[in-house]
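Instructor's aside before we start: the two examples that follow are unrelated to each other. I chose them only because their records fit on one page, so don't look for a connection. First example below.
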Amino acid sequence: MGQAIVRRFARAGHEVAFSYNSNGERAKELAAETGTEAYALDFRREWRAPDLDVDILVNNAGVNLATEEIFNTSDEEIETTMRINFYAPVRLIRHYGRGMRDRGFGRVVTINSGMGLVPPARRLSYGASKHAMRAATRSLAQELAAYQITVNDVCPGPVDSFMFREKAQAAVDAGRFPDTGAYLADFLSRVPTGSLILADEVAAAVAFLAAEESGSITGVALRVDGGMYNL
């Protein structure tokens, strides 16, 4: 999703900077391909946000470690998940929001999750972190509206991504499915459209909420989920 978002905004003529954690080589390739800037940040540890003038902040970094029942969920898992999925976006909004406030314009879009709306079983740390971010978005949307800063969430369903394939393999390794194809079939049986979400579809939703014409849309959770979390 991050790569799709970077490409979308670069094609639209924005000056784009993005962060990465583990795949430095791929980040350099993406930066060279799109004419953007890449910054190495590890949200699990101490980090400092780059000093940039930012009008549009997209919080996309995330981790989904939850696969176990509550009795096997460690404090470390919960702390790491909250640090990446909740603390990091809030810190970035606090850091770059000051400039937005002073300039009288800003767009904040956080990649949340359908699980932030309906947390399922065995997803305690992930669901809690995304639910917390949803609460933060709703609160900050009200707080920052006076400065013409909108704050919104995009809540994807199952995206065809590296993270999804990791979860599929983990389910197979745990003996819950014979292979990743069976995992995919079971998962898609719960998605009304019957297909995984494309990263470009998520990027399009982000671009919509970040547009200047979307100034009256704030505090929302825009679902891109194939109808999976149709509440």
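Example two begins here.
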Amino acid sequence: MYPQDQQYTKQHEWVRLSADAGVIGITDYAQKELGDIVYVDLPRAGAKVEQGKVMGSVESVKAVSDIYSPLSGEVIEINDALATAPEKLNESPHGDGWLVKIRLSAPDEVQGLLSAADYEKYVAAEETGH
């Protein structure tokens, strides 16, 4: 269900790595929990993000939720399409709804992230309350 080429956090973000960079987004589980997303607040290019720290937020009809960076680095690109079409996060959270691209400053941090299989187990346990 979740792409195997991505790593996951327990806060429901994902990162897809390539060389010294990573693309970050929120998971399908997160967008379902949020409901219809109406606004996305992202860091600017050049901003520094830290693993586990807030890097932005998404606003849905239900609530505003923080987005936590899965890895540390510098933002090198943001998904400008989300400014006018935040619903892309609902439609394609693991594809066109990506949030930012970062240049990694501590690539070893990836070892603390979950694989797709581990994330699926985590979500299943969260849904059943166990």
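Residues 18 and 111 are 15 Å apart (CA to CA).
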